[in-house]
Amino acid sequence: MAAIEASGLGRDLPGEVPVTLVRDIDLAVEAGEFVAITGPSGSGKSSLLYLLGLLDLPTAGRVRIEGADTTGLSPDQLAAIRLARIGFVFQFHFLLPEFTCMANVEIPIRRLGALSDAQARDRAAMLLDSLELADHRRKYPDQLSGGQRQRVAIARALANDPAMILADEPTGNLDTRTAHLVFDLFRALARDQGRSVVVVTHDADLARMADRRIHLVDGRIVD
Amino acid sequence: MALPLGLHIALQHLLHRRRQTLVSLLGVALGVAFFIAISAMMQGFQRDFVARIIDVQPHIIIKDEVREAPMQPVERAYPGGAVSLRGLKPMEEVRGIRGARNILATLEDLPGVHVAPALSGNLLLRFGGKDLSVNVTGIDPARERKVTHIEKDLLSGSLDALYTTSNAIILGEGVAKKGGIRSGDLISAVSPVGVVLKMKVVGIFSSGITLMDNFDTYVLLKKAQVLQNRTNVVNRVNLRLDDVELAAPLAAQVERQFGYRSEPWQEQSRNVLGIFVIQNAIMYSTVGAILIVACFGIFNVISTVVFEKTKDIGILKSIGFRDRDIRRIFVTEGLIVGVIGTVIGWGLGWGLIEFMASLHFEMEGFVRAQGFILYRTPVHYMVSAAMAIASATLAAWVPARRASRLNPVDIVRGS
Fold first, then answer.
1. Residues in chain A where the model's pLDDT stays below 50
2. Do the domain assignments include residue A168?
């Protein structure tokens, strides 16, 4: 059973002149697999990622998460799946500026509510430690470097121990060395922890670090 | 950390916008404070006034008038018939309540009802070259003291002096002051029918109700009948009830039974009570306006937060916050401003009331007082809290709904 499976996936933007973001996507990502989605800008990479992550709804086809069809689920049900099973990382870290790194990582855990406050703290600390951010727990996002912030964002994505991590240009704002470190991290999340990792990037060098590359042109998978 | 997550986020938003939050808090607080202070002042005055008129005036006055001209016998005999009377001439009759003795006896038998007859009219007082036009009421002191407050309001003299001194008169404080008249002075009284009497001032009263003090005088009933040249005539019957609330129904019953116009105290003071209604309307619209302004403050701060926090909303939604979780965060922010603003407003309002209570000045309107008459009640605090919190929540609802409808894809795609 694939972690994420898309079949005949398409997304049109309605309007006087309808715009097709992606079409006819058939794709399966297995557990423990690290997949890179590449393509020129405007090729629909991000749109595809949002569809796979249930942030956006397809206008054609369907997405199965761990074997379960998500077609027709209510927004609240989709939110519940995202909360428990999917972790997002974006180009901008999107950390809440009023909260410390610890508190930022705790937010998804507390929202899920499966752990006590003390357990949530422990888990957030553990995640930050594992990303070598132990010294920065009490700092606010604007006190960190770009790479550190992105690692906090990854810790937050991992907060509820999701089966899949979806990242949209996660290294877009990072220098090459830091970008490689982040990609190493993604690879480890897939290989060592058995998570499915899907990363959108326009950087061919970085994409080479993935197990599999999917190239998108004009909303379709090529080669 | 024990705070619920939504509340935690809401508090952080407000704490990071201290100045704006403070301004909206102040708006709510001022609205609440003014409401409490103005309500205390207005209701204090109104309740005091009602208490005074209930205390001072008769609860029901039966007058020698009828509300509508009586129907002609022929009209009564053929109601709705094609009867038309023309050139009717009204019959000249001596005014007064007919069968007053009978009415008095009937009403006196009712439990909890005290009755006194009176004859009221006008009088011109002459003293030291001054003419004063006043109302004169002829009373039966023994009965009157059970019905009105006149005896307790006497500053000098006594009600019984009306019996013991011939041609005795009691003046209102304002009448005495205007005429420069003192207790014991002899004054000339001229009635509209031309009777002239030398009268001796045996008492001066002060009721606290300006109109009465400035224009009312009292003489013995018999003396009033002489002045008006209406022997044995009574044109008013005054009633006092043990239970004030029964005044309106009893007045209606008396009017049905005897046909004479019977006015309960509410009707006697209808002008003033009507002004109170307008007064209250003005007060509530003023306070309402303050609260509306406060609401705009809240609306403004939360709209700003929503606008500034668009990215946060996007990430929270992508993490898995539902629309209603987002909405709750921002409504909570309005609620927090409403609740804290209310508590501050309670303090301010209490302080304002105590400040007003400490002021002393002479005031003369419908009634005389030496400062603000304040009515303190928890009801004002509760009502203001309910209004403030409800409007704060409502003001937050609009931007909160907008926030909850933001599409996370539009936000995170910003990259």
1. none
2. yes
